[in-house]
Please model this.
Amino acid sequence: MVVVAAGAGVRAGPGEPKQFRPILGVPMLLRALRPFTAHPEVRHVVVALPPGYADRPPEWLRKARGERLAFVAGGAQRADSVRAALAALEPGAAVVLVHDAARPFVSRGTIDAVIARARANVGAVAAVPVSDTLKEVAEGAPRATPRVTRTVDRERLWRAQTPQGFPRPMLDAAYVQLGPLRAGERVPSDDAEVCERAGFPVELVPDSPHNIKVTTADDFRIAEALARELR
Model:
C-alpha cells in the first residue's frame, strides 16, 4: 500500500510538517500507519515523505522502518508522490491501497471493505454522503465575500476519503495514461480521479465521519478530542 505524506501542510500553521505533529502525544503519521501495518492482509507499506525526509526520517519513524515499511521522496503533486511510491512497492501486490497521512482515525472495517471491493476488480473509495447545503460561487470571486450563483443539489454527492483501493494493474495503467503532469493542467485531486479519467470503474464504500482529514490548526483540536473519545 501507499501512504501519501509528502505535503508541506502550510494550512496547519508554522512548524514541522503537519503529518509529524502529535495528536495526544502520538505523531499523526504514526497514527495513520498503525491500522495498516497491523492489518494481516497488508504486506508492504511505502510512505511518500517530503523531500529530504526519506533518507533522514524523524527518529520515531526511522525505528518503524523494516521489511514491511519503506520510505520514498514524494513529489510536487500528490500524483507525483503516488507514482514514486508505486515504483517502490513490491511487484507481487494484487491490490494497492492509497491512504492520506492526514487521516489518523481510519477503522479496520473501512479498510476491510475497501480491500474487498478492490478485489472485485473495481476502484473503491471510502466516502461519506454530503450533509451540508452546498453553494457555488462566481468564478474568480474573492474569498472574503464570494457571491453565490446557485445552490448545488447534494442528493447524489459524497465526500471522498481514504483509503482508496485498486487492482494493481488498474492503478498502474491509469497512471501511465495520465502521463507527466504539464504546467497549467488540472491536477487530479485523488487516485480515484486518475482511474476515472482512464475510464475504469470506481465505486464508493460507506465510511465513518470519524475518518476526518486534519488540515488546519482547528482540525488538530478536533482530532485531539476525537483521539480521547476513541482511545
Q: What stands out?
A: The radius of gyration is 18 Å. The first strand starts at residue 2 and ends at 4. The first helix runs from residue 28 to 37. Helices lie at 28-37, 59-62, 78-88, 108-119, 168-178, 191-197, 217-230.
